[in-house]
């Protein structure tokens, strides 16, 4: 379990660096998705065999039962993997949503750092920035895909609006 803890603690580092400094590279998307998938599979392998013991604790949570679970390797390591996956997925979403909305790099990186180190605080910060950005200049949800569709459609002579 110590090895799993160490690997899952440091394996996301290169992906975070890609999110910070090279978010437009296809490698960034692929690396983030592959790592999140791999960590989720690892999490499933650790949690599924423990489901009979976990379901009663989760179905009727009490502070003492959660504290007791997290005081064991079988509780804390999967919990850590869960937190790593969540922070990375949220960071991935923040990064790519910032690009879509035109949020500057100088704003994006501190948001990602806050997410990396303090998860929900980074998410809350981004949701505030996002609300301000969208209020200032609303961006249609499908704007990027629509532009690509329109460019492809006009080149092929097909109508510019999807049916």
Give an overview in words.
α7 packs antiparallel against α8 (120-136). The chain has helices at residues 2-10, 13-21, 26-47, 51-59, 63-70, 73-101, 105-118, 120-136, 143-156. It is globular, with a radius of gyration of 20 Å. The chain has one domain (2-156). It is built from nine helices and no strands. It has 163 residues and is mainly alpha-helical. 80% of the residues lie in helices and 0% in strands. The model is unreliable at 158-163 (pLDDT under 50).
Number of domains: 1
Main sheet properties: none
Secondary structure tally, helices: 9
Average pLDDT number? 89
Percent in helix: over 70%
Q: Kindly report the oligomeric state of this protein.
A: single chain
Q: What is the element string, with H for helices and E for strands?
A: HHHHHHHHH
Amount of beta strand: under 5%
Radius of gyration from CA coordinates:
20 Å
Low-confidence stretches: 158-163
End-to-end separation in angstroms reads 52 Å
Tell the overall outline.
Answer: globular
Distinctive features:
about 160 residues, mainly alpha, 9 helices
Tell me the layout of helices and strands:
Elements: H1 2-10, H2 13-21, H3 26-47, H4 51-59, H5 63-70, H6 73-101, H7 105-118, H8 120-136, H9 143-156
Brief characterization of the structure:
The chain has 163 residues and is mainly α. The chain contains nine helices and no strands. α2 (13-21) runs antiparallel to α7, α3 runs antiparallel to α6 and α7 packs antiparallel against α8.
């Amino acid at each position: 379990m110590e090895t799993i803890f160490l690997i899952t603690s440091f394996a996301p580092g290169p992906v975070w660096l890609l999110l910070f400094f090279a978010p437009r590279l296809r490698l960034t998307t692929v690396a983030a998705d592959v790592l999140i998938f791999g960590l989720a599979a690892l999490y499933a392998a650790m949690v599924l065999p423990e489901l009979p013991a976990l379901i009663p604790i989760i179905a009727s949570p009490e502070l003492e039962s959660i504290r007791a679970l997290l005081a064991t390797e079988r509780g804390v390591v999967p919990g850590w993997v869960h937190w790593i996956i969540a922070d990375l997925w949220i960071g991935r979403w923040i990064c790519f949503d910032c690009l879509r909305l035109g949020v500057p790099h100088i704003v994006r990186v501190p948001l990602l750092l806050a997410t990396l180190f303090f998860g929900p605080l980074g998410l809350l910060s981004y949701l505030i920035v996002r609300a301000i950005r969208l209020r200032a200049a609303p961006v249609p949800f499908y704007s990027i895909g629509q532009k690509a569709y329109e460019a492809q459609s006009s080149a092929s002579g097909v109508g510019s609006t999807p049916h």
